[in-house]
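Methods — Computational structure assignment.
A single polypeptide chain was analysed. Its primary sequence is given first, followed by the predicted tertiary structure written as structure tokens.
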Amino acid sequence: MIDKQTGLWIYNKMHEIRDFEETAWTLFTENKLRGSVHLYTGEEAVAAAVCAQLTDEDLIASTHRGHGHCIAKGAELDKALAELMGKATGYCKGRSGSMHIADFSKGNLGANAIVGGGIPIATGGALALKMQGKPNVAVAFFGDGASNQGTFHESINMAAVWKLPCIYVVENNQFGMTVPVWQSTSVEDISVRGAAYGIPGETVDGNDVIAVYEAFARAKERALKGEGPSIIECKTYRWRGHWTGDPEVYRTREEVEEWKEKKDPIQLFGNYLTKHKLAAKKELEEIADAAAKKMAAAVEFAMNSPEPDPEQVLADVFYEG
């Protein structure tokens, strides 16, 4: 069972992520973002429950659907939104856009537009941690589609052989772009693939904060003992399409609405906090209000931020150390 401080931190982060994603959706429809975005709405429990157990010295590698991971790992809403809008005040000076936000000071090795591209990066981060003798872990976030990429199998094999402190978190949101997971993946639970490499695999309800939190805690403890990597599959669901222009002809609105009504991770966790007397309803309302105000301030910051200077177009392209 988590304590009150951790519970409220997670609840706050989930609201920040939800507000950020829904704001990004609105700004996209108003043609105020540079390019399309892949939204994390509905999956907030995974990033928040995992990153609640990480420090700035722990590492993560994210995905094309990475805003939630970045925010949970410490990204500020204003700088993150400025990045989506291509502004100079963004995390990467407006150069990365939605799919490549990084902040090494927070242990965020970056989001990645290539499906499965972050998996070997996190594995390399875990190797570095082990070589340096640091008591930390690296986390690879990726989707069900990425579990069918070669990077998944090659990276996990290497991590298992070298017993690297890497935790592979599969966010199974039921679809790889427009393809249902049952049409693309040979196993019902992706976590069972860990058996092929002699490592633990566990499947949990990805909309249940406590289930994700406890599974990750077990994997982290194993990694810090020098016992190597683990796979955690979190079965969840994305409320929005694959990207902001997705016509979503491959699923019904009834299916989406059922997930929203019955399996909203924020609502479920709020109920848990009140049931176990970790928070009063008023406290949760105050957290939600504060997150909304923070998001509104982030919009104002990003909208009023300057465009990048064309004279700096070659800056940061080449290493000058």
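Note: The chain has one domain: 4-303.
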